[in-house]
Model the fold of this input.
Amino acid sequence: MCGLLMIGGCFTDKGGGSANAMDTTSAGSTSAGSTSLPTTGPQTDTGSTSEGTSSGEMPTTGSPEGQPCDPYSQDCPDGFKCAPYASNDGPVWDANKCVPVTGNDTPGQGCTVEGSGTSGYDSCIKGVMCTNVGDALTGLCTSLCGGSKENPTCDLGLGCLSSNEGALNLCVQRCDPLDNNPCVLADQVCVENDDAFLCIEGFGLEMGAVCEFLNDCGEGLFCGNSVASYCKGSGMEGCCLSYCDDDLDCPDMTLCTVFDPPSSEYPMLGYCGVAA
Done:
């Protein structure tokens, strides 16, 4: 995956390989729903996204290849698909264009990309893209969100994670933040996005570590304000905090504070961060 996201609604995940960051676009998306958690902007400049987030008119003559398109409706002609890509050949998907469908790899299967992980050209079928691309230019086919920007759809058990100002819209696993093993894929963490908890690649920082993006931290943690006594920052940076739903879950004489406003799905969910 790719994109940019920081405390308060951003994730990290590289377009061409392991993760970088995602800037979610859903209104009101704050880290785990807490108004006390800051919102920050993208970690890299994704450039202009206007051509990639709405349907463009297809040419009446010639090939539609390279034309802007709508990733939700997949409005490219037969034989083509609407694919996220990096318009400046960089590491971040920031637009969508029509590309030829050249393979038959389906969601969950391995895939290959041409050129780079953010080129938009891969071996996945229509409505699917190659993510988690490594140095060998191979990755995993992942479904794109269907429906529309206002009402995205995914298969049962999956949720739509929209990032990079709407240029990247992936169906990812829903998860329980209090589950010991909430995500099927290794190295993923369970973080909140628009009041839904979704799995995305994590970066393993320990509790109390200074962080910037929601998924900078390890399993069972998220990046929030430096509110706990064990936070190693100055109070201005983000800090890896632990989810909880009871004071017994919390370390270092801290209490479990329910998010305000609370999560509609997990109304007792909170974070360990206030001194006892």
Summary: The two ends are 40 Å apart (CA to CA).
